[in-house]
Task: structure prediction
Amino acid sequence: MSTQTASVWPETVIARYLTVGGATVDVTHDTLTVDDTKPNVSHAKCGGCPAYSNSEWASRADRWDNGSTWADSDARHWAQSHAETCRAIPKPTNA
Result:
C-alpha cells in the first residue's frame, strides 16, 4: 500500500478515490466565491492532473439537510468516474 493511500485524510475530505495512476481524487466542501462565508459547493479535485468538478448545493429553506446531499452524490460520481480512467501519477513530495 502506498503512503498516499495509507496516510490520514485531510480533515476536510469527505470521500477519496484512487486513480489508475496512483493519485487520489478528493471530494471536499468548499465555498464557490471568496465572498461566501459558509460552504456551498461539493468540490472534487484530482491530485494527479488538473481535472476538477464543482457541484453547487441546493438553496431551499425547507430542506432537512444543508443542501449538499445531491451535490455530494454528483461530486462522488464524477470523482469515481475520473479515478477509473486517470493515469496521471501524483507529484512526489519533497522529503
Remarks:
- The two ends are 19 Å apart (CA to CA).
- The longest strand covers residues 24-30.
- Residues 8 and 16 are 11 Å apart (CA to CA).
